[in-house]
Amino acid sequence: MRIPDPVFRRLRGYSFDPSLSTQLDTALVNEAVFKIDWEGSLKPGPIGEYLEVVDYDPASKCFYEPLDLNDKHILAQDGLSPSEGNPQFHQQMTYAVAMTTIKNFEKALGRKALWSPHRMPAGPGASGNIEGPDNYVQRLRIYPHALRQANAYYSPAKKALLFGYFPAVSNAPGEFLPNGLVFTCLSHDIIAHETTHALLDGMHRRFIEASHRDTLAFHEAFADIVALFQHFSFPEVLKHQIAKTRGRLESQNLLGELAQQFGKAIGQYGALRDAIGEFDEKKGEFGEKRKEWRPKNPNPDEYQTIEEPHKRGALLVAAVFDTFLAIYKRRVADLLRISTGGTGVLPEGELHPDLVNRLANEAAKCSKHILNMCIRALDYCPPVDISFGDYLRAIVTADIDLVPNDEMGYRIALIDAFKRRGIYPRDIRTLSPESLSWERFERDDTEQLEVFKKIAEILRKFVHRLDYLDGDPLILGDFDSFGKHFKNLEAGSWKSKTDRERIFLLTEAGKSALSELLADYKTLGDPEDVMQFEAITGLHLLYSLETHEPVNGLEFIESGGPQGFSGKYVFEVHSLRGARRVGPDGNTLNQVVISITQHRIIPYDKTLKWDLLTEEQKKEEPSFKFRGGCTLILDLQDLSLRYAIVKNIADKVLFDKNLFIENERLTRQRNYRTGVDGTAMRATYLGTSDNVNNEEPFALLHRNF
After folding, report:
1. What is the distance of C-alpha 360 from the center of its chain?
2. What is the pTM of this model?
């Protein structure tokens, strides 16, 4: 009888980082066991389906021996024991935390995670602004000892996580050896943070572009949110901190802090970042300087004034963590009433272990729900130019879609936390959940054009096909005349590919088919329907002298363009994703998410008439890409459009007043890039012109975090 493979691989690691293992109070809870999905074909490295750990130390010019997690002695003891001095444990730690983060994403989104592909240059004869095809990236590479500096970052160019190590500063406060080595690859928070950057880039690669103050800050904030809420998945840590704070998680505790060892090692008094508090300098009884922790009070002015991405992102992190605290207090209120005879005031002394367990269970449930809300919202974001207000609307909409009845008030708590920090979406009159939700299209709305039904009908077959990846891909000839895009998938190598690679190849073919469908629709469709389609999506697909909105700088191919885009504006089906989710009350969502983007080439000099310049003149003139587009969410159950989340790219013309009005987003982006509005942060990290190669936006941004 064949014994089935285990469900999980158990690997030991640090709950936080090595510094807490040298403190008596936290040593026993700082060692966690990560339960990782079993990979039977895991190779030494480790090298699995999603990750490849390559342990080369450039500073020392040496390779460390790769770890074999299938070794029987390692399997028998839940992996190597935590150790700062063992490079093989460093490999184990990065693999365990990164895989945990990946699986949290997959559970929330209801599909397998894919890394951002390598984008190839366009073929010969194509315009310089047209990008080539995408190449599949199976594994994200992890380099545990890539840098000898206080840094760690995700490299979009290398598709890799690079971790540094460095000596702690001599005056660093804390409980570790001054000038001793600190390894960023041993911090749960830093590993989870960098892995989240990679996962987010795999879904929204345009979010990495610094188009205004919120874009880089959002990337940083979202990575911190994931790292913070993964703390609550460690039961012993959670119970320890609840017992220590007597259930008051709004007081100083490890659960709300990020990268304790790193923060102290670079000379800070406490953790690198704290979601709920900060240290103030005070004078002691004898005039000596000392630091005292205090909770952060929301200040709406900070959102208008803070520019640095990490500090600005901390506002978003604080709003989400405050939401958790508000719901946690509500969930445990009955437990406190029962345990205190109705007063709600706990007596002095330690909490009863049973009460600690119950409080920990409620905190774990609440944190898991908040984390799922935050990840799920990524499908409801615009494809470019994300703002904190957009993200608030995405969270609210995604939650309303899946959990219509918000009995615990998650959405109200979230809106209140954002409001107290002055974070509001633009063009919103009220802050009710209904107003904040993206506009929902119903099945019988006049906006339900026939083209949306056709796309949904075709993609329903396509998404269904993604559930059965071992069959013949040519079944997708159901794409009518667009089945040709799947012809190259019939090679005999199909069965040798992994499920994730099959999903990638099918999705790329589906994007090409959808591009052709939209291009043909714009050319052959009913003109009135086409105009309505443009109004709904904010897209411009076919050049026309009769257009009602000028789109100067939007690339136009007159003839012989790639993919048959002759006489059409260039556009890109940016992503195509299926989403199947089940809510707590059994509510089922079966949707497809499509992101379509375009860009205009905009000169920094507003007085220039860009379309009147020659190609040579355009190359010499400083310019940038102004992107727009939409995220379309289609309901595959009733074959209709559900949401169109739009970032308009065109300017406005009031013909009756002969008045030209530049796109407001365009004005804000130009000012942000040039520092006209007092914001020089974009230029500080990435320069002003798109002609500058910015393949590593996180390398400088993450230096000393």
Report:
1. 27
2. 0.91
